[in-house]
Specification:
Layout lengths: L12 E5 L3 H6 L5 H21 L4 E8 L7 H24 L3 E5 L7 H14 L6 E8 L1 H17 L10 H7 L10 E4 L18 E4 L9 H12 L9 H7 L1
Length: 247
Amino acid sequence: MTILNKQTKTPQHVAIIMDGNGRWAEKRGKHRVFGHKHGVKALRKAITFATENKIGALTVFAFSSENWQRPKQEVKMLMELFFSVLGSEVKKLHKHGIKLKIIGELTGFSSRLQKKVLEAEKLTENNQGLILNVAANYGGRWDITQATRTLLERVENGTLKASQVDETMMQDALTLSKIPQVDLMIRTGGEHRISNFLLWQLAYAELYFTDTLWPDFDASDFQFALDVFSGKERRFGQTSEQVRDLD
């Protein structure tokens, strides 16, 4: 868990909504999937940057639970791209000591893709470097709902009393229970909303929005977001005076 009164210049945990792939492709007269493929290149750059800057965890929004409503052909191509990227990238991640975790309702994917996910996680599970969380078929409401269901099952079987349920227990039942809360959330593409992403984990995150479309997001853009973050006074409900006294 993040120590709430600690002022840090480098975030421990960065989350990114990688928005703008489709629009990037359309501006170039290409199919939207062309943008998603270039988005993978931008993700590689972001992972490299996070590793070099000693960011502990990077969580990226790859496919939301609402994205199933997109055109069927685009969804199909996205699933194939996801499968292909898992196959081609996981060995590189493992080589660099990166631990991969896919978060979301995985039962919504094909058995072939679920198998690929489990293999990728198994290969990297003992790595000690950057923790890379990829949110796929994920929604913040789903995350809170499944955590609530887990606690209710414990109440029903008598191993937990309802009066014992607190924020710590809820946190432990969420998909990102083992890593610090998000310090900085970046959204590319010009939209200013969090779109059902990490609703619990973003409670005290600094939010940074940029018009840059995701395929164009590079190390200089990431660094600028960190520079903005480093200039923030993070009070977590305290006064500025209290925060200064803790320094």
